[in-house]
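Sequence only, no structure available. Ideas?
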Amino acid sequence: MDHIEGRPEYAEAREATLAWYRQILRADWESPAQLKREIRSASILKDGRAVFNVAGNKYRIVVWINYPYRVVYVRFIGTHSQYDKINAQTI
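Reply:
I predicted one. Tokens follow.
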């Protein structure tokens, strides 16, 4: 959460990102299909990657998920326009 603390331009993302984080802490996904059933707005990419929309789709969170170990690695958090400049599959 360091990327948004004390930065007014990300103030609207703080609560939404914290809500997403709390939801992820409770998650126990065995597969991408199970993730998609639980969070329909998530985009499933190849090789364990997923993209979540937060704060009314103003922000994106890209993660890599190790499904067998139930571990979620955050690879990117940024605005929708910042997301458009990255390759979510390789970041």
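The beta strands are 43-44, 49-54, 59-66, 71-79.
Hope that gets you unstuck.
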